[in-house]
Amino acid sequence: MEALGQPLQQSRLGRGQVHTGHANLGKSQFTGPFPNLGQQLKGIDLSAVERHLPIVETAALQGEVGSLVWRTEDDTAAFARRLAASPAVRNAFVELHGELGAGKTTLVRHLLRALGVTGRIKSPTYAVVEPHEAPGLAIWHFDFYRFNDPREWEDAGFRDVFASPGLKLAEWPEKAAGVLPVADLVLHIESQPDDSRVVTCTAPTPTGQALLKDAIA
Q: Residue 137 burial (CB < 10 Å; 0-12/13-18/19+)?
């Protein structure tokens, strides 16, 4: 894929708006601090190994917001490794939004591998949920694409799952709107004409803010 050469313009985001332009693939710099995290994030000069993770900008928007670009699947894998390395991931709920083929399941697979999950990683499209075990960590991967009856939530015991420790990942969470708890980290993945992905990350909880800080620091 071609490198994205145009930096994002400085934006003035109002509540409920997210800038999803392209990234400056040189030095990445945050435009605002992360409140309640104890320090202001500074510009980051990515190493040769992790330079596939261009951070574009952040803004206060009902929690912390970051926007980044994945140019290749290696970028997705690099982001997944950073998520996996964060202590906050061990008890987080992460929502993944995006159209079919956007790369939601690809991110989940890279994340599970980075966490130490071995064996086949199946998509839970038909089963709704696939449980996984990593060293010292329970993981549940949900796909609510075919979820259409809120009674399934109670009947399947999902309330108990979300009340228990561990990592929960949910694709198509909008299909279960009204029954899901508030997510710690929300990822919106948008496919671009050049096959890159623009990813908007929103972290409305302290757990999500710590996870986002670690994932893009």
A: middle
Q: Which long-range contacts (CB under 8 A, 24 or more apart) does 153-158 make?
A: 153/179, 156/128, 156/129, 158/129
| Sheet arrangement for strand 167-171 | 55-60, 64-70, 197-203, 185-191, 93-97, 167-171, 137-143, 129-134
What is the predicted pLDDT for the residue at 31? 36
Domain regions of the chain by residue span:
55-216
Which fold does the domain 55-216 belong to in CATH? Rossmann fold (3.40.50)
Q: In whole angstroms, what is the distance from residue 139 CA to residue 154 CA?
A: 19
Q: Where are the alpha helices (DSSP H) in 1-40?
A: none
Q: Is 159 helix (H, G, I), strand (E, B) or coil?
A: helix
pLDDT at 25: 29
Q: Quick check: 107 and 189 in contact, CB under 8 A?
A: yes
pLDDT digits (tens, 9 = 90+) for 36-56: 333 333 332 333 233 333 333
Torsion of CA 172, 178, 181, 187, to 10 degrees: 30
Beta strands 64-70 and 55-60, pairing class? antiparallel
Question: By three-state DSSP, how is residue 14 classified?
Answer: coil
Residue 120: predicted pLDDT: 83
Positions in the chain whose pLDDT score sits under 50: 1-61
